[in-house]
Amino acid sequence: MEDRIRLLYLEDNLQDVELMRAVLRREGLNADLKHVESAGEYLKEIQGHWYDVILSDYDLPSYSGEMAFHAARAEAPLTPFIIVTGALLEEKAIELIRNGVTDYVMKNHLSRLVPAVQRAIDEAKEKKLAETSLHLLAENERKLKLLVNNLPGIAYRCRYDRDWTMEYMSEGCFGLTGYQAGEIIHNALVTYNNIIHPDDRLKIWEEVEQAMEMQQPYTLEYRILTRLGEIKWVWEKGNSHLDETGQIESLEGLIIDITTQKKFEHELSKSEAQFKAIFESTKDAIVLFRDGKIFQANPAFKELHGYAANEDISHILTYDLVANEEKERVMSYQKKRLQGIKAPSFYETLGLKKDGTTFPIDVNVSPIILDDETYAVSIIRDISERKKQEKEIRLNESRLESLLRISQFKADSLQELLDYALDQAVKLTCSKMGYLMDYNELTLEFSPNTLSKEVKALCLLPKLTNSLLLQDTGLWGEVVRQRRPVINNSFSEPHPLKKGFPPGHAPILKFMSLPVFLDQDIMAVVGVANKEEDYNEADIRQLTLLMDTVWKIYERAKNTSFLNKAKEEAEQISQIKSNILKNLNHEFRTPMNSILGFADLLSRSLTKTEDLHMAGIIHLSAIRLMDTLNSLINLAELESGEFLINLKVIPVIQLIRHSVGKFSDQAKQKNLLILFDDPPECYVLADPLALQIVFDKVIGNAVKFTNTGSVTISVDKLCEKHSDWIEVKITDTGIGIPEDQMKMIFEAFYQISEGYSRAFEGSGLGLALSKKLINMMNGEIFFSSNHASGSVFTIRIPPGTLVVTEPSRLKTKNAGVTAGTLPGMGILPEILLVEDNPLNKELVCIYLRGKASIDHASSGETALNMARNKQYDIVLMDINLGPGINGLQVTKKIREWEGYKNTPIVAVTGYTSETDKRRLLDGGCSQYLPKPFSKIQLLETYQIVLSSLQ
To answer: What string of DSSP letters covers 919-949?
Structure first.
């Protein structure tokens, strides 16, 4: 039953009101008419009630229809408004319509009223649906911006020229190419074409050019040369963007690093092809019904039922789309669904075209609710071909017997299965010989798989195992080029695609070949020859059916073998991920050691304000990069289980004080106050490193996202649910968090401000990392916020009990040691510095100038020779020394020598995980100094080592 329409009618003439009611009854409009006579009644109604349509006379005592319209726009802007008048000038009518009046109806033509009302209601619903679509579009755009900024590669827009002149590149440019996006955009420093490997440039141009001519997107795989000369494999997907004249304005797409996945490219390409085929080849008809009438339909639906693309089909009912003999059954399903009774949602029936012809279809129906109205969504497929095939299958039961023999064949190997299948193919098609060739769609290469015994008997060629490229094939390669079967019943006659045969090849009189597909990929080519009669479509059907079945059995058997290797490959992938993580950590920390060190030295030696400012920028930028790297490494270690939590009783105030000091300079630069009343020390049960990271991240965020005002830190003990727990609150007066983004605030890589317009830098990892760490320490972290007025982050940690012991009365072991000299001798220590990075070597020498005598070895082999020929007091050992033996191997070898059993060996390394630290200390190193290190850190470690020499 249709919902009743609610109408509000402003009219001072009661006779016109009764006439209106009569017209509505006569036209059969299912409506409730509410009548008001005065402006006061009218305003009360539109302020307190909702109506589908408002009707108003134009001329009213002390009021007018135009005034009523403006009042309606203020109170109910989306409600259709129709003027019902006895007289109205044409100019005024046009003005009203232009200003937003939905329609006007003359009282002497009230027959127009009902269609006008229905049309107004439909248009209002369409506007509401459009507003919903715009909202969804805006949300999708936001998600798209977030996705682009976190893509594992480069999103780009470039000109269609030989330089691929970039107009936009996303933030992944540097990580992939080593170039900043600004160095490539508009060819500022280098063109993207110069980054492409020279051997691939022409191929890429030709493939894109061909795609543009065919007005198709392009997919590329090629190599690039990074800034450091490294070769990487990339996958690129793009398409053209046309201007208003249809000319190519730019190319847009995505470039992703696939270097580490290259060895899996065949499996990946198959998976991508399957998904693409399913997604792009779907041409199902989709129609939306409301109250049994078509509400919306896609072009495929109109084409399926024989309607023109621009034809109005909103009047068509559900039963108008099915054949007469099926209407009763289909309508019974619809009635049951409307009554809430279970009915089939997927069924087959006969569809009805506009011209009256019928055709078999299957229908999938699902109810949905939009704007409190129930709709039925139907997906309709033409199954004429399937029905035809089913009929043919029933008529060819004898052929299935052969397939049954194939499926029951017990083969000792996959090759034996294919040999047997080829023998069956020759017999089914009454041929004299046959062959089966494997085909690789990536390399366009054929490889002989098996030959029938007749071919082996007749062929006198000495070698039948050579591979052959598609471009070198003749007529039998057409099955791949055309992706369909090929028949030639006059093979001896001249043919433009035949390339001839070498002497000794088996003679061919008639020929048929077809591709073997797995989903959309050609996996093999099967051919048969020399049937006595001509090959025909029936032969194609028989052979296709046979080979499709065989190949499914073949793939299933092959996949079973593949699954046995899955665990081993998964473990290898896990190891690759671990190695990448370690290498990334080391490769960043080693150069950062030099950058931070020399920036610090510059700031101490420079006098010009401008020079000091630039040195400071270098130092701050390096610290920011190290903070991002540490966050990435910590998050990866947490996800892989390598970040170990060691719970012990630790002081809270000391950790907070350290974080406050870390961000005090940043706060001063922004004229912010960090308010911390430095309460008495209290203790919690937590991991000191993990809790320090949490305080750094949360307090750092508060300073970063606060432009004016203050950041306040308070520490209290809870007395309710978590008795004696320590609660730390960080309150800021910053930008706050919008309500619609609060659910995502602890997600990795998420920031409130995103894209080009984001106001704050950062990786978006801080809060995600803090959440994981707090959870691992059995604590809690949550927040409250008002957008544009600040946020409060609360951290709760279980308490710890500090065990107080008597102070040690032992004298300090290293009392009296002078920094930079051997204890009791006053001479400079002899140090062997093992470091393959010349910048780090130079930095250490500067830091220890005047405090030690330093010899340098740049490789493990050189270090062993130098230590064998000279006794050193201290060894500073880098671990990653490039080709050859590493620093840990050198350490273990030196420890075997009598003179070095107790010599301090300090591991100076970019490998910084707790696992690495334990491995190095257990492997013979006596101290551990992670890169990057400051001068103070190096000298502190040096002092500890000197003390141990006493």
So the answer is: HHHHTT-SEEEESS--HHHHHHHHHHHHHHT
SS3 660: helix
Residue 489, sorted as left (phi over 0), alpha (psi -120 to 50) or beta, turns out to be alpha
Which residues share a beta bridge with 34?
Answer: 8
Q: Do 751 and 762 form a contact (C-beta atoms < 8 A)? A: yes
Give the CA-trace dihedral at 61, 65, 68, 74, to 10 degrees. Answer: -160
Does pTM top 0.85 for this prediction?
no
pLDDT tens-digit map of 640-692:
666 677 888 988 898 898 888 888 888 888 889 899 887 888 888 888 888 88
Q: What is the pLDDT of residues 171-181, one digit of tens each?
A: 889 989 999 99
Q: For residues 244 and 528, what is the distance between their CA atoms, to the nearest angstrom?
A: 53
Strands 63-64 and 59-60: antiparallel
Q: How confident is the model at residue 503 (pLDDT cuts 50, 70, 90)?
A: low
The order of strands in the sheet holding 373-382 is 293-297, 285-290, 373-382, 358-370, 346-352
- Give the 3-state secondary structure of residue 801: coil
The CA-atom distances, in angstroms, between 901 and each of 556, 692, 762, 878 are 61, 36, 47, 19
Residue with tokens 């194609």: 540
Q: Say if residues 344 and 373 touch (Cβ distance below 8 Å).
A: no
How do 103-106 and 153-158 pair as beta strands? unpaired
C-alpha distances in Å from residue 308, one per residue of 288, 313, 377 = 18, 10, 21
Neighbours of 466 (CB within 10 A): 9
Q: Helix 566-605 crosses helix 537-564 at what angle (to 10 degrees)? A: 60
For residues 5 and 29, the answer to whether their CB atoms sit within 8 Å is yes
